[in-house]
Protein backbone atom coordinates (compact mmCIF):
# COMPACT_ATOMS: atom_id res chain seq x y z
CA UNK A 1 0.00 0.00 0.00
CA UNK A 2 2.70 2.49 0.95
CA UNK A 3 4.43 2.05 -2.41
CA UNK A 4 1.18 2.56 -4.31
CA UNK A 5 0.41 5.72 -2.34
CA UNK A 6 3.94 7.07 -2.83
CA UNK A 7 3.76 6.51 -6.59
CA UNK A 8 0.43 8.33 -6.88
CA UNK A 9 1.62 11.28 -4.81
CA UNK A 10 4.82 11.45 -6.89
CA UNK A 11 2.76 11.46 -10.08
CA UNK A 12 0.56 14.22 -8.66
CA UNK A 13 3.67 16.29 -8.00
CA UNK A 14 4.94 15.63 -11.55
CA UNK A 15 1.64 16.71 -13.13
CA UNK A 16 1.55 19.88 -11.05
CA UNK A 17 5.23 20.59 -11.82
CA UNK A 18 4.58 20.30 -15.57
CA UNK A 19 1.61 22.67 -15.30
CA UNK A 20 3.56 25.22 -13.26
CA UNK A 21 6.50 25.04 -15.68
CA UNK A 22 4.16 25.96 -18.51
CA UNK A 23 2.68 28.82 -16.48
CA UNK A 24 6.15 30.06 -15.51
CA UNK A 25 6.98 30.28 -19.22
CA UNK A 26 3.76 32.22 -19.76
CA UNK A 27 4.65 34.73 -17.04
CA UNK A 28 8.07 35.17 -18.62
CA UNK A 29 6.19 36.72 -21.54
CA UNK A 30 3.33 38.47 -19.71
CA UNK A 31 5.28 39.59 -16.61
CA UNK A 32 2.36 38.53 -14.43
CA UNK A 33 3.27 35.95 -11.78
CA UNK A 34 -0.26 35.94 -10.36
CA UNK A 35 -1.07 33.13 -12.76
CA UNK A 36 0.69 30.79 -10.31
CA UNK A 37 -2.38 30.94 -8.07
CA UNK A 38 -4.64 29.85 -10.93
CA UNK A 39 -2.26 26.99 -11.67
CA UNK A 40 -2.22 25.86 -8.06
CA UNK A 41 -6.01 25.77 -7.87
CA UNK A 42 -6.40 24.07 -11.26
CA UNK A 43 -3.76 21.44 -10.53
CA UNK A 44 -6.06 19.64 -8.10
CA UNK A 45 -8.62 18.89 -10.82
CA UNK A 46 -5.81 17.37 -12.88
CA UNK A 47 -4.63 15.35 -9.89
CA UNK A 48 -8.16 14.09 -9.16
CA UNK A 49 -8.42 13.01 -12.80
CA UNK A 50 -5.05 11.27 -12.59
CA UNK A 51 -6.02 9.45 -9.40
CA UNK A 52 -9.34 8.39 -10.96
CA UNK A 53 -7.50 6.99 -14.00
CA UNK A 54 -5.04 5.09 -11.81
CA UNK A 55 -7.58 3.99 -9.16
CA UNK A 56 -7.61 0.37 -8.01
CA UNK A 57 -10.38 0.77 -5.43
CA UNK A 58 -14.10 0.55 -6.30
CA UNK A 59 -15.70 3.64 -7.85
CA UNK A 60 -18.01 3.98 -4.85
CA UNK A 61 -14.95 4.47 -2.63
CA UNK A 62 -13.38 7.36 -4.53
CA UNK A 63 -16.11 8.77 -6.78
CA UNK A 64 -17.62 11.26 -4.28
CA UNK A 65 -14.31 12.71 -3.13
CA UNK A 66 -12.98 12.94 -6.69
CA UNK A 67 -16.06 14.91 -7.72
CA UNK A 68 -15.74 17.26 -4.74
CA UNK A 69 -12.02 17.90 -5.33
CA UNK A 70 -12.63 18.59 -9.03
CA UNK A 71 -15.57 20.92 -8.30
CA UNK A 72 -13.57 22.83 -5.68
CA UNK A 73 -10.62 23.13 -8.04
CA UNK A 74 -12.63 24.35 -11.03
CA UNK A 75 -14.60 26.85 -8.94
CA UNK A 76 -11.53 28.36 -7.30
CA UNK A 77 -9.67 28.55 -10.63
CA UNK A 78 -12.60 30.32 -12.29
CA UNK A 79 -12.92 32.73 -9.36
CA UNK A 80 -9.23 33.64 -9.50
CA UNK A 81 -9.39 34.22 -13.25
CA UNK A 82 -12.52 36.37 -12.87
CA UNK A 83 -10.78 38.37 -10.12
CA UNK A 84 -7.93 39.15 -12.50
CA UNK A 85 -5.15 36.85 -11.30
CA UNK A 86 -4.20 35.94 -14.89
CA UNK A 87 -4.25 39.43 -16.43
CA UNK A 88 -2.48 42.75 -15.98
CA UNK A 89 -1.75 44.56 -13.80
CA UNK A 90 0.31 42.12 -11.74
CA UNK A 91 -0.92 41.69 -8.15
CA UNK A 92 0.96 43.87 -5.69
CA UNK A 93 2.64 41.10 -3.70
CA UNK A 94 4.14 39.58 -6.88
CA UNK A 95 5.16 42.97 -8.25
CA UNK A 96 6.92 43.63 -4.94
CA UNK A 97 8.75 40.30 -5.12
CA UNK A 98 9.78 40.93 -8.72
CA UNK A 99 11.19 44.34 -7.79
CA UNK A 100 12.94 42.98 -4.69
CA UNK A 101 14.56 40.10 -6.58
CA UNK A 102 15.71 42.27 -9.47
CA UNK A 103 17.96 40.37 -11.86
CA UNK A 104 17.23 37.09 -10.03
CA UNK A 105 13.45 37.43 -10.41
CA UNK A 106 13.14 34.91 -13.22
CA UNK A 107 15.10 32.22 -11.37
CA UNK A 108 13.41 32.86 -8.03
CA UNK A 109 9.95 32.83 -9.58
CA UNK A 110 10.75 29.47 -11.20
CA UNK A 111 11.55 28.10 -7.74
CA UNK A 112 8.38 29.68 -6.37
CA UNK A 113 6.20 28.16 -9.09
CA UNK A 114 7.73 24.74 -8.49
CA UNK A 115 7.22 25.11 -4.73
CA UNK A 116 3.51 25.47 -5.45
CA UNK A 117 3.66 22.25 -7.46
CA UNK A 118 5.34 20.50 -4.55
CA UNK A 119 2.59 21.79 -2.26
CA UNK A 120 -0.01 20.25 -4.56
CA UNK A 121 1.78 16.92 -4.27
CA UNK A 122 1.92 17.15 -0.49
CA UNK A 123 -1.74 18.13 -0.18
CA UNK A 124 -2.83 15.33 -2.51
CA UNK A 125 -2.14 13.00 0.43
CA UNK A 126 -5.36 14.42 1.93
CA UNK A 127 -7.54 12.55 -0.58
CA UNK A 128 -5.38 9.86 -2.21
CA UNK A 129 -6.31 6.95 0.10
CA UNK A 130 -9.85 6.30 -1.25
CA UNK A 131 -8.42 5.67 -4.72
CA UNK A 132 -6.35 2.68 -3.61
CA UNK A 133 -7.89 1.35 -0.39
CA UNK A 134 -11.07 -0.66 0.05
CA UNK A 135 -13.31 1.22 2.50
CA UNK A 136 -14.27 -0.25 5.86
CA UNK A 137 -17.82 -0.56 7.17
CA UNK A 138 -18.02 3.10 8.22
CA UNK A 139 -20.05 4.34 5.27
CA UNK A 140 -21.65 7.00 7.44
CA UNK A 141 -18.23 8.53 8.04
CA UNK A 142 -17.65 8.89 4.31
CA UNK A 143 -21.09 10.49 3.98
CA UNK A 144 -20.28 12.88 6.83
CA UNK A 145 -16.93 13.82 5.29
CA UNK A 146 -18.49 14.46 1.89
CA UNK A 147 -21.22 16.58 3.52
CA UNK A 148 -18.71 18.69 5.46
CA UNK A 149 -16.64 19.25 2.32
CA UNK A 150 -19.73 20.25 0.32
CA UNK A 151 -20.78 22.70 3.04
CA UNK A 152 -17.27 24.18 2.87
CA UNK A 153 -17.45 24.44 -0.92
CA UNK A 154 -20.85 26.13 -0.80
CA UNK A 155 -19.82 28.52 1.98
CA UNK A 156 -16.61 29.53 0.22
CA UNK A 157 -18.54 30.18 -2.99
CA UNK A 158 -21.08 32.37 -1.18
CA UNK A 159 -18.39 34.29 0.74
CA UNK A 160 -16.40 35.04 -2.42
CA UNK A 161 -19.55 36.12 -4.29
CA UNK A 162 -20.60 38.44 -1.45
CA UNK A 163 -17.17 40.07 -1.32
CA UNK A 164 -17.08 40.50 -5.11
CA UNK A 165 -20.54 42.08 -5.09
CA UNK A 166 -19.50 44.45 -2.28
CA UNK A 167 -16.40 45.56 -4.17
CA UNK A 168 -18.35 46.26 -7.35
CA UNK A 169 -20.45 48.91 -5.59
CA UNK A 170 -18.65 52.29 -5.82
CA UNK A 171 -20.36 53.39 -2.60
CA UNK A 172 -18.31 50.79 -0.68
CA UNK A 173 -14.92 52.03 -1.81
CA UNK A 174 -12.61 52.25 1.18
CA UNK A 175 -15.14 50.62 3.51
CA UNK A 176 -14.87 47.28 5.31
CA UNK A 177 -17.08 44.51 3.91
CA UNK A 178 -19.39 43.43 6.73
CA UNK A 179 -22.29 42.07 4.69
CA UNK A 180 -23.60 38.51 4.64
CA UNK A 181 -21.11 35.97 5.99
CA UNK A 182 -18.58 38.77 6.47
CA UNK A 183 -20.74 40.12 9.30
CA UNK A 184 -20.08 36.91 11.26
CA UNK A 185 -16.46 36.17 10.37
CA UNK A 186 -13.62 38.40 9.21
CA UNK A 187 -12.40 35.55 7.02
CA UNK A 188 -15.35 33.30 6.08
CA UNK A 189 -13.58 32.32 2.85
CA UNK A 190 -10.68 30.87 4.86
CA UNK A 191 -13.00 29.16 7.32
CA UNK A 192 -14.96 27.37 4.61
CA UNK A 193 -11.74 26.57 2.72
CA UNK A 194 -10.51 24.76 5.81
CA UNK A 195 -13.89 23.03 6.11
CA UNK A 196 -13.39 21.52 2.63
CA UNK A 197 -10.11 19.95 3.73
CA UNK A 198 -11.57 18.87 7.06
CA UNK A 199 -14.24 17.04 5.06
CA UNK A 200 -11.51 15.21 3.14
CA UNK A 201 -9.93 14.18 6.45
CA UNK A 202 -13.22 12.83 7.85
CA UNK A 203 -13.89 10.98 4.58
CA UNK A 204 -10.49 9.27 4.73
CA UNK A 205 -10.98 8.19 8.34
CA UNK A 206 -13.52 5.66 7.01
CA UNK A 207 -10.60 3.74 5.47
CA UNK A 208 -8.30 1.24 7.21
CA UNK A 209 -5.73 2.59 9.64
CA UNK A 210 -3.09 3.91 9.50
CA UNK A 211 -3.66 5.04 5.90
CA UNK A 212 -6.90 6.83 6.65
CA UNK A 213 -5.02 9.17 8.99
CA UNK A 214 -3.21 10.72 6.01
CA UNK A 215 -6.18 12.99 5.43
CA UNK A 216 -5.57 14.74 8.75
CA UNK A 217 -2.26 16.12 7.52
CA UNK A 218 -3.82 18.14 4.70
CA UNK A 219 -6.32 20.00 6.84
CA UNK A 220 -3.65 20.68 9.48
CA UNK A 221 -1.33 22.14 6.85
CA UNK A 222 -4.10 24.33 5.43
CA UNK A 223 -5.08 25.54 8.92
CA UNK A 224 -1.49 26.36 9.88
CA UNK A 225 -1.04 28.27 6.63
CA UNK A 226 -4.24 30.25 7.22
CA UNK A 227 -3.21 31.28 10.73
CA UNK A 228 0.54 31.57 10.34
CA UNK A 229 1.75 32.10 6.77
CA UNK A 230 -0.24 33.28 3.76
CA UNK A 231 -3.74 33.67 5.19
CA UNK A 232 -5.00 35.84 8.01
CA UNK A 233 -1.83 37.72 9.17
CA UNK A 234 -0.90 39.35 5.83
CA UNK A 235 -4.55 39.91 4.90
CA UNK A 236 -5.27 41.76 8.14
CA UNK A 237 -2.01 43.69 7.98
CA UNK A 238 -2.97 44.98 4.53
CA UNK A 239 -6.52 45.79 5.70
CA UNK A 240 -5.18 47.78 8.68
CA UNK A 241 -2.84 49.65 6.35
CA UNK A 242 -5.59 50.64 3.93
CA UNK A 243 -8.64 50.95 6.21
CA UNK A 244 -7.13 51.86 9.58
CA UNK A 245 -9.57 52.50 12.42
CA UNK A 246 -12.53 51.17 10.45
CA UNK A 247 -10.87 47.77 10.30
CA UNK A 248 -9.83 47.94 13.96
CA UNK A 249 -13.46 48.44 14.88
CA UNK A 250 -14.37 45.52 12.64
CA UNK A 251 -11.77 43.37 14.44
CA UNK A 252 -13.27 44.22 17.82
CA UNK A 253 -16.78 43.41 16.64
CA UNK A 254 -16.46 40.35 14.40
CA UNK A 255 -15.04 36.85 14.98
CA UNK A 256 -11.62 36.26 13.48
CA UNK A 257 -12.33 32.87 11.89
CA UNK A 258 -15.35 30.80 12.94
CA UNK A 259 -18.64 32.50 11.94
CA UNK A 260 -20.24 33.82 15.11
CA UNK A 261 -22.79 36.52 16.00
CA UNK A 262 -20.99 39.90 16.16
CA UNK A 263 -20.39 41.68 19.43
CA UNK A 264 -22.67 44.59 20.20
CA UNK A 265 -21.59 48.06 21.27
Structure description:
- The protein has helices at 2-30, 35-54, 59-83, 92-101, 105-123, 139-168, 188-204, 214-228, 232-243, 245-253.
- With 265 residues, it is mainly alpha-helical.
- It has 2 domains: 1-134, no CATH class; 136-265, no CATH class.
- It is globular and about 55 Å long.
- The model has no long low-confidence stretch (mean pLDDT 93).
- Tell me the span between the first and last alpha carbons: 57 Å
- Strand residue percentage: under 5%
Task: Calculate the mean pLDDT score and round it.
Answer: 93
Shape: globular
Oligomer: single chain
In short:
The chain has about 260 residues and is an all-alpha fold. Helix content is about 70%, strand content about 0%.
Task: Give the SSE layout.
Elements: H1 2-30, H2 35-54, H3 59-83, H4 92-101, H5 105-123, H6 139-168, H7 188-204, H8 214-228, H9 232-243, H10 245-253
Helix pairs in contact: 1-2, 1-5, 2-3, 2-5, 3-6, 4-5, 6-7, 7-8, 9-10
Task: Looking at this protein, list some descriptive labels.
10 helices; mainly alpha; about 260 residues; 2 domains
